[in-house]
Write a structure and sequence with these properties.
Layout: H1 2-70, H2 92-99
């Protein structure tokens, strides 16, 4: 009886080992191509987004340099002028407030 129970136990362990190794091999055979496809599609999407960002940054930089040449630098206000146009003197409200 002892020999037969040991044989049955060994058969069960062997069957379990073969089953687990077969399932592991099938998982690897099916999993690696799926994982590779996922990584490749993610890399492709990231590359596409990076190219878009580079193109957009280049066009924004070009617009900025084009517009910065058109705009004149801002002038500082002086204390005696009413506004940044520099066309006239102080307004009546400023004169009243400065006399107080």
């Amino acid at each position: 009886m002892d020999y037969q129970s040991e044989t049955i136990r060994a058969k069960r362990v062997a069957f379990l080992g073969i089953s687990l190794s077969s399932i592991s091999a099938l998982t690897v055979i099916l999993g690696f191509p799926l994982l590779y496809t996922y990584i490749q599609s993610t890399q492709s999407a990231m590359h596409h987004d990076l190219q878009f960002c580079r193109t957009r940054a280049g066009s924004l930089n070009g617009e900025y340099s084009r517009l910065s040449g058109l705009l004149s630098p801002r002038k500082e206000r002086s204390a005696g002028q009413c506004c940044s146009c520099g066309a006239g003197g102080q307004g009546p409200v400023v004169r009243l407030l400065s006399n107080l």
